[in-house]
Protein backbone atom coordinates (compact mmCIF):
# COMPACT_ATOMS: atom_id res chain seq x y z
CA UNK A 1 0.00 0.00 0.00
CA UNK A 2 1.36 3.35 -0.95
CA UNK A 3 1.71 6.12 1.57
CA UNK A 4 0.38 8.92 -0.66
CA UNK A 5 -3.11 8.57 0.87
CA UNK A 6 -1.84 7.64 4.30
CA UNK A 7 -3.10 9.09 7.52
CA UNK A 8 0.01 9.03 9.72
CA UNK A 9 -0.01 9.32 13.48
CA UNK A 10 2.68 11.44 15.13
CA UNK A 11 5.04 8.44 15.29
CA UNK A 12 4.25 7.24 11.77
CA UNK A 13 1.69 4.58 12.51
CA UNK A 14 -0.98 4.34 9.82
CA UNK A 15 -4.28 5.44 11.37
CA UNK A 16 -6.02 4.68 8.08
CA UNK A 17 -5.11 0.99 8.60
CA UNK A 18 -5.64 0.86 12.37
CA UNK A 19 -8.52 -1.32 13.50
CA UNK A 20 -9.31 0.87 16.53
CA UNK A 21 -9.26 4.18 14.61
CA UNK A 22 -12.80 5.57 14.99
CA UNK A 23 -13.58 6.04 11.25
CA UNK A 24 -12.49 2.43 10.61
CA UNK A 25 -14.54 1.13 13.55
CA UNK A 26 -17.58 3.01 12.28
CA UNK A 27 -17.11 1.51 8.81
CA UNK A 28 -16.37 -2.06 9.99
CA UNK A 29 -15.81 -2.97 13.64
CA UNK A 30 -12.89 -5.40 13.82
CA UNK A 31 -11.65 -4.39 17.28
CA UNK A 32 -12.12 -7.87 18.70
CA UNK A 33 -9.66 -9.28 16.17
CA UNK A 34 -6.90 -6.79 16.97
CA UNK A 35 -7.51 -6.97 20.73
CA UNK A 36 -6.98 -10.74 20.58
CA UNK A 37 -3.62 -10.22 18.87
CA UNK A 38 -2.57 -7.51 21.36
CA UNK A 39 -3.35 -9.86 24.26
CA UNK A 40 -0.88 -12.32 22.76
CA UNK A 41 1.81 -9.67 22.30
CA UNK A 42 1.53 -7.89 25.63
CA UNK A 43 0.96 -10.32 28.48
CA UNK A 44 -1.48 -8.88 31.00
CA UNK A 45 -2.93 -6.33 28.58
CA UNK A 46 -6.68 -6.92 28.40
CA UNK A 47 -8.23 -4.30 26.11
CA UNK A 48 -12.02 -4.34 25.91
CA UNK A 49 -12.97 -4.60 22.23
CA UNK A 50 -16.30 -2.94 22.98
CA UNK A 51 -14.69 0.25 24.30
CA UNK A 52 -11.14 0.53 22.90
CA UNK A 53 -11.12 3.25 20.25
CA UNK A 54 -8.85 6.05 19.06
CA UNK A 55 -9.49 9.31 17.23
CA UNK A 56 -5.87 9.45 16.11
CA UNK A 57 -3.12 11.38 17.88
CA UNK A 58 -3.25 14.12 15.25
CA UNK A 59 -6.78 14.93 16.38
CA UNK A 60 -6.54 18.10 18.45
CA UNK A 61 -10.15 18.19 19.62
CA UNK A 62 -10.74 18.60 23.35
CA UNK A 63 -12.78 15.42 23.51
CA UNK A 64 -10.46 13.33 21.28
CA UNK A 65 -9.91 9.81 22.56
CA UNK A 66 -6.29 8.69 22.24
CA UNK A 67 -5.20 5.08 22.65
CA UNK A 68 -1.92 6.26 24.23
CA UNK A 69 -2.47 9.75 25.64
CA UNK A 70 0.96 9.72 27.34
CA UNK A 71 2.90 8.72 24.22
CA UNK A 72 6.44 10.16 24.36
CA UNK A 73 6.79 10.27 20.58
CA UNK A 74 3.57 12.29 20.26
CA UNK A 75 4.68 14.74 22.94
CA UNK A 76 8.11 15.15 21.29
CA UNK A 77 6.68 15.72 17.80
CA UNK A 78 4.32 18.39 19.12
CA UNK A 79 7.13 20.08 21.09
CA UNK A 80 9.40 20.04 18.02
CA UNK A 81 6.63 21.48 15.85
CA UNK A 82 6.64 18.62 13.34
CA UNK A 83 3.69 16.91 11.71
CA UNK A 84 5.18 13.48 12.49
CA UNK A 85 8.54 11.80 13.18
CA UNK A 86 9.36 11.59 9.47
CA UNK A 87 10.12 15.33 9.44
CA UNK A 88 12.58 15.18 12.34
CA UNK A 89 16.34 15.45 11.72
CA UNK A 90 16.97 13.13 14.70
CA UNK A 91 14.76 10.31 13.34
CA UNK A 92 14.88 7.53 14.48
CA UNK A 93 15.69 8.39 18.07
CA UNK A 94 15.55 6.60 21.43
CA UNK A 95 11.87 7.34 22.00
CA UNK A 96 10.77 6.26 18.54
CA UNK A 97 8.43 3.26 18.94
CA UNK A 98 10.30 -0.02 19.07
CA UNK A 99 8.96 -2.66 16.73
CA UNK A 100 9.74 -6.33 16.44
CA UNK A 101 12.38 -7.15 13.83
CA UNK A 102 11.48 -9.38 10.91
CA UNK A 103 13.41 -12.17 12.62
CA UNK A 104 11.39 -11.70 15.83
CA UNK A 105 8.16 -11.81 13.83
CA UNK A 106 9.15 -15.09 12.17
CA UNK A 107 10.02 -16.49 15.58
CA UNK A 108 6.63 -15.47 17.03
CA UNK A 109 4.79 -17.02 14.09
CA UNK A 110 6.91 -19.98 12.96
CA UNK A 111 8.68 -21.08 16.16
CA UNK A 112 6.66 -19.93 19.13
CA UNK A 113 3.29 -20.09 17.35
CA UNK A 114 2.18 -17.07 19.41
CA UNK A 115 0.14 -15.78 16.52
CA UNK A 116 -0.66 -16.50 12.90
CA UNK A 117 0.27 -14.82 9.64
CA UNK A 118 -3.34 -13.62 9.46
CA UNK A 119 -2.97 -12.00 12.87
CA UNK A 120 0.34 -10.45 11.79
CA UNK A 121 -1.48 -8.83 8.86
CA UNK A 122 -3.80 -7.14 11.40
CA UNK A 123 -0.70 -5.43 12.86
CA UNK A 124 0.15 -3.75 9.54
CA UNK A 125 -0.92 -0.30 10.77
CA UNK A 126 1.69 -0.25 13.50
CA UNK A 127 4.87 -0.60 11.38
CA UNK A 128 5.93 2.96 12.20
CA UNK A 129 9.57 2.63 11.17
CA UNK A 130 8.67 1.10 7.81
CA UNK A 131 6.24 3.93 7.05
CA UNK A 132 8.55 6.70 8.24
CA UNK A 133 11.49 5.24 6.27
CA UNK A 134 9.30 5.15 3.14
CA UNK A 135 8.11 8.71 3.79
CA UNK A 136 11.65 10.02 4.21
CA UNK A 137 12.86 8.22 1.09
CA UNK A 138 10.06 9.76 -1.02
CA UNK A 139 10.72 13.17 0.51
CA UNK A 140 14.37 13.04 -0.66
CA UNK A 141 13.32 12.67 -4.30
Structural description of this entry:
By secondary structure, this protein is an all-alpha fold. The protein has one domain. 39% of the residues lie in helices and 0% in strands. It is built from six helices and no strands. 21% of the residues are buried. The model has no long low-confidence stretch (mean pLDDT 87).
What is the structure about, briefly put?
The protein is an all-alpha fold and 141 residues long.
Indicate the proportion of strand residues: under 5%
Largest sheet: none
Number of E-type strands: 0
User: Which stretches are poorly predicted, pLDDT < 50 over at least 5 residues?
Assistant: none
* Amino- and carboxy-terminal Cα gap: 19 Å
> Would you tell me the structural class of the helices and strands?
mainly alpha
Shape: globular
List the helices and strands and how they pair.
Blueprint: H1 22-27, H2 31-41, H3 72-80, H4 102-111, H5 117-122, H6 128-140
Task: Tag the structure with descriptive keywords.
single chain, 141 residues, mainly alpha, 6 helices, globular
Amino acid sequence: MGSENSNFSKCGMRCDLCLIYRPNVEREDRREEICNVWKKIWQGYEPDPKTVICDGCCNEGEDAVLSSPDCEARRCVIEMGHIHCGYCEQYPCDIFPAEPTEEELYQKIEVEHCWTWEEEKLMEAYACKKYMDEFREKRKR
